[in-house]
Amino acid sequence: MSSSSSIADSPPAGNPQAPGVIYVQGVPTSDTRLTLGASILVSPMAIGTWAWGDSTWGYKPEMFDDIAATWEALQEESSGINFFDTAEIYGRGESERIIGRLLKRSEENGKPKPVIATKFIPFPWKLNYPSCLLNAAKGSMERLGVDVIDLYQIHGPIHLRSIEVVADALAEAVKLGLVKAVGVSNYSIDQTVRMHAALAKHGIQLASNQVEFSLLRRYPETSGLIAKCHELGVAVLAYSPLGMGRLSGKYSAENPPPSSRKFSNYPMTELKPLLTIMERIAKEHDVPMTAVALNYTICKGTIPLGGARNPEQARQNAKALGWRLSDKEIEELESVALIGSTGFIWQHG
Known about the structure:
CATH topology: TIM Barrel
Distance between the termini: 23 Å
Number of helices: 12
Strand content: 5-15%
Low-confidence stretches: 1-18
Shape: globular
Order of helices and strands: HEEEHEHEHEHEHEHHEHHEHH
CATH superfamily: NADP-dependent oxidoreductase domain
Structural class: alpha/beta
Helix content: 25-40%
């Protein structure tokens, strides 16, 4: 796949047959499909499943039924969402095991298999590449109950081995048929460029870079990361697009989110101007505030990963499709949005 020309030369976004379209250029709909790594077709929005099985989010086994109902609601044709993101570290593999159970249930019921992305955690003490990555991929495959991983991502730039060594390991996973497409997460512009070039030597397109992006952290756009990724044909996946619930309308200064939710951890009093504008726009479009936050990230050329732990949350997320914020509305939102920052160890992008 070519780099910057892949977008300009392709049919309009939303055409499932359009090769190389990595972000929505018009109105996102339930029929829109984007192409990652020239190999997988995904909806313009994904479901992040960190909360499925992880104690960070207060998960308990009795919550499985709600998650199963959420999965089934999302498999309704009207939702249009076919993309789920997990990681080996979420609940120490429990998130993957839950998805594995749900995939098996869908297969038994004759439902189409959604696209599943997961991640390899490259702890600094993991030095023996490619074996550490390949073994981790096989472990994820076993927990998910799949023969191949659709999208396999490096969870963060915390590896001590060079990007080129890690790229060689990802390429080996592709060549062995363990994964279809490969991506990264929390990578800076320079790191993304290096990984893209290293994979290109193997004839492999870097599919994605997953970074925190929302109205509470516009840094990936203002830094030029999103534009550079698009130039390289790399899709941008936006995690925490709701600011860990802060943009959902559920929380306020009087009722703040749990202290464990560290991303975009601003006092709710500072967010009141933004939330006021979001609430007005939501009413004008007859959608929940979550849909405004998610639609914003789509308008900025990313694929948001909104969390959902019950069917109602899933349906609210789906209402981000079928319309698009106007330029004036985006300008209003950005007048009170926050830029955010990077982290020395984890969040480079």
